[in-house]
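Cross-check.
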Amino acid sequence: MESLLANLARKERDRLRVSRVDVDEHPELVVRLDVTEVPTLVLLAGRKPVARLEGRSSAPRIERMIGRHLDAAKRGNPDRSLLA
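Predicted model, tokenized:
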């Protein structure tokens, strides 16, 4: 998952920022984002969760989730960036 996200982050660097969070070091973020399983991928737009995948996910599933939101951001508000 990390290599796929790193590749997407490079390809979409103007619209997507990827951050990895250590759940032990940031328990407040775990609570705020309601993370109950590791790994969890939370997609944020405007600092609010807009999509999530819990557990191991396939590359096509991750790409579909992120792509759908990147396309929507492009159509609706090009200044709205996503954080995965």
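The chain has one domain: 2-83. The first strand starts at residue 16 and ends at 17. Passed to J.P. for a second look.
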